[in-house]
Specification:
By secondary structure, the chain is an all-alpha fold. It has 20 helices and no strands. α2 runs parallel beside α7 and α16 packs antiparallel against α20. The longest helix is centred in the first third of the chain and has 27 residues. The C terminus is likely disordered.
């Protein structure tokens, strides 16, 4: 063995042991500290407090001067319109700007979410803007904690959901979601619950939770498509049945809030959105196929469209094939189910036509499952390239640098590589569910 090879082996062994030991303690499992001969749980409790302290410091430094959220006033004023009986004008840009000027003191981006989502913000809209934002911030934190708690109990046995939540708060897309007062963490919770129930063969309930993902239909519909094509038999019928019930209920809520003409007005607004001032449509900061195509072929709309469609079709086909390869029995005992579902979530993010940086909060589910798989392997079998991708996506400087230079679309490449890693592990892995 050469000197360089021996040195590399020594570094891998030392660093590998350190990472493995730290990750085992994060999960709350593993041997006691071999140096001191006792558990280091108190140290990791201190680390959890450090997570919260860092988050509180970020909050105090960056948010307290504003205390309204950069996007939250759009949701707040839309809910105000509904509460004052102006729901039939919800997608009138002029009326939206009137309410923003009156209740938010500024004019910004428009409310472009489905009409039923205004109901979610309706309770806090009855309060002053800053207090409403703080309550929504608390609600977002609860969405994240509930999602991590369910994920830890369902698929990450032995992991400490509180530390998982704390680590999630250090993920830049999660921080952006909280700072902007967005709803991506609610979407993460609904998809996590759909995953959990489908894993337990409760397909109808899973479909109901999946129906709530229509609050961001540009992400929810690709996920629904791959599940509908990949899952077969009674499970698919039950899943689509639950989805249909919730979709019908959400449509009824939309009509009750805004009237029958709301659907036509909504479609019209989305079609003409790029012509609006403060439209908030920036393909360069979309870490999906659309953003990647925009950065590759700036100004060539045909090449951008071909890239988007081709990559979406390729990853859709790969996802469906992966679903067909896993074997499902009565209790949904499936080979690689967790990782194939996680890959489907990554596909939905990449194939979405409109994606904001805070929407990458959804990647917390597949990243956690992928980390579990890697850390469950023996040290010699660790997939070091995939670990490097995970670390790169977690590092704040990567996100901040890409956002500052409007190059965030390039992050679609490591996300696409993680998609293929999830499929590869799902094809060869075996789950007992």
């Amino acid at each position: 063995m050469t000197g360089i090879a021996a040195a590399r082996k020594w570094v891998y062994e030392r660093l590998g042991w350190r990472f493995r030991f730290a990750f085992d303690r994060l999960r709350g499992v593993g041997p006691a500290n071999p140096i001191h001969g006792r558990s280091k749980s108190p140290i990791f409790a201190i680390l959890f407090c450090a997570f919260l302290a860092a988050f509180a410091g970020f909050l105090a430094e960056r948010w307290l001067p504003l205390l309204s959220g950069s996007d939250f006033p759009d949701f707040y004023c839309a809910a105000r319109m509904v509460s004052q009986g102006r729901g039939h004008q919800l997608y009138d840009p002029a009326v939206q700007r009137q309410f923003q000027a009156r209740y938010a003191g500024r004019v910004g981006t428009l409310y472009i979410h489905p009409p039923f989502e205004a109901l979610l913000y309706l309770p806090v809209s009855l309060l002053p803007l800053r207090l409403a934002y703080l309550l929504w911030l608390l609600g977002d934190l609860c969405f994240l904690a509930l999602a991590m708690n369910r994920l830890a109990k369902e698929s990450l046995p032995g992991w400490d959901w509180r530390l998982l939540t704390g680590a999630g708060l250090m993920f830049v897309p999660t921080l952006l979601c909280l700072q902007q007062g967005q709803d991506s963490l609610f979407l993460l919770l609904s998809i996590t619950l759909a995953f959990s129930h489908l894993r337990r063969n409760r397909a109808f309930t899973a479909g109901c939770w999946l129906g709530l993902a229509l609050c961001k239909f540009q992400i929810g519909l690709p996920l629904i498509l791959v599940l509908a094509l990949g899952i077969r038999g009674k499970l698919r019928r039950a899943l689509l049945g639950g989805l249909g019930v919730v979709a019908f209920a959400l449509a009824a809520i939309s009509v009750a809030l805004c009237g029958w003409n709301v659907f036509g007005a909504y479609v019209s607004l989305l079609i003409h959105l790029p012509a609006q001032s403060f439209a908030g449509v920036f393909p360069a900061v979309m870490a999906n196929f659309r953003g990647l195509g925009w950065l590759l072929f700036r100004g060539n709309s045909a090449a951008m469209l071909v890239t988007d469609i081709s990559l979406s079709a390729l990853t859709l086909a790969a996802s469906v094939v992966a679903w067909r390869r896993i074997r499902m029995s009565e209790n949904l005992a499936a080979e690689g189910f967790d990782r194939v579902f996680a890959a489907s979530v990554v596909f939905a993010v990449l194939a979405s036509y409109h994606l904001n940086p805070h929407d990458l909060s959804l990647l917390w589910l597949p990243l956690a499952l992928l980390s579990r798989k890697i850390m469950g392997e023996a040290r010699e079998k660790w997939d070091w390239p995939v670990m490097a991708l995970l670390i790169a996506l977690f590092l704040p400087p990567v996100h901040l640098w890409a956002l500052d230079r409007r190059l965030y679309g390039w992050l679609a490449i490591p996300i696409l590589l993680i998609f293929w890693a999830m499929l590869r592990l799902g094809w060869r892995g075996r789950e007992s569910i």
